[in-house]
Amino acid sequence: MMDFVSPAYGTKPLNIKRVVVGLSVIIGVIIISFGSLWYVKTQKQRVAVEAARPKAIVAGTVVDQHQRIVSDVQLEVINSTGDSVAKTNSLANGTYQFVLNPGFYRLVAISGEFQTSKQIYLVQNSNEKADIKVILP
User: Fold this and answer.
1) How confident is the model at residue 52 (pLDDT cuts 50, 70, 90)?
2) Which end of the chain is more exposed for a tag (fewer CB within 10 A), N or C?
């Protein structure tokens, strides 16, 4: 291996192998940093596009089999792949609301006093407002 004399260090030999490895590490760190910045930027753009996409509103009231209002019922929206996409509880007046993208969903209502209610719903159009009455058995 050939050693060069570094003008910065006087007569101390400069090891080319160490210089190449050091530069490789620095370049790798720079590439990873720019890659991370690019990823964050694209994620922010994706979130902005998703937020700008028109949504549909699914809302309604939770009642029992005698049409009495039921409050504090846990409601969960599950998409066609089985993933939970939103959760909420019915308010004191029995109402609930979800803002969703178009697609197929299952609405599940769970209350300790009643059996679980499951309904399938299709959100067809953006800017649609669907009124779904959840009747707990």
Assistant:
1) low
2) N
